[in-house]
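User: I'll paste a sequence; please echo it back and then give the predicted structure.

Assistant: Echoing your sequence first, then the prediction.
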Amino acid sequence: MSVLAAGTAPSIATQLFGSGLIGLREGLEAGIVVMVLAAFLVKAERKDALKWVWLGVGIAVAMVAAIFLVIHYGTSTVTGLTAEIIAGVASLVAVAIVTVMVLWMRKAARTISHDLKAGMEKALVAGPVAVLTLAFFAVGREGVETALLMVGYAENTAGSAWPLVGLLLGIVAAAVLTVLLYFGAVRLDFAKFFKYTGIFLIIVAAGILGYGIHALQIGGVLPGGSALAFDISGGYDASSWYGTVMAGIFNFRPDPTALQAVAWVVYVVVVLFLFLRPVSAPTPAPAAPAADAAPERTATPTPDETVS
């Protein structure tokens, strides 16, 4: 695409670092999901169902790769204003989905292990297809987020393949780390890890949001393409180490439009506030009334009362 902060691709190290960190975080999220499912099956002495988990994971990975290739190479074959509009819309969709997933994980992290185990328990009763489907959706959810995030991220690298290399290296590192975690060889403070990498993803998403808005302004969909918020191009070295880092990872432009700047600030402030606010503890179930105060009732339990 033609909307580049500096006109050329950022340095290789910058591309590898940014996409590698995305791959590490998203890969570790998916790895934890697989680790929980596999550990549950092993503990339940149902190793025979592991092949369905791995098949579901494999299908999810193939689906994610297909999504990435279709979007990335599909937009690469389009030129002119149509390309800018497609890139802008794809970027905004990516930001919306990534934002929802980051905020969802903030709340779901406390109960995800319990939810996955409960889901697998039901899937084992339903049969192999249910086990495969559970693994597919659990991993595919993280994979789709990664694919969309990388499409928006890679738009600023002038068609370079290094972001994909960095992503794969990050995923490999996440896989190794997941195996070490499974066998207890390493310990990781997941709360801090996902908190800080979540902040990183929010800043990256804000840059993709700015990129998408500018692309739509060039395509004539949004107004204000010539109204700059500021212009520091004269004293800003886009080819320096800080210039390549800011452009390659955060999609920073030295001459953003007013709409870009406002959208970036509003997005960061609002989403960071929602992400960093304390998570409320689950509301405890009301205590059962005392036996002497309970109203008279039949001795036959209801179906709900028979569930442990």
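The mean pLDDT is 77. The CA atoms of residues 107 and 279 lie 7 Å apart.
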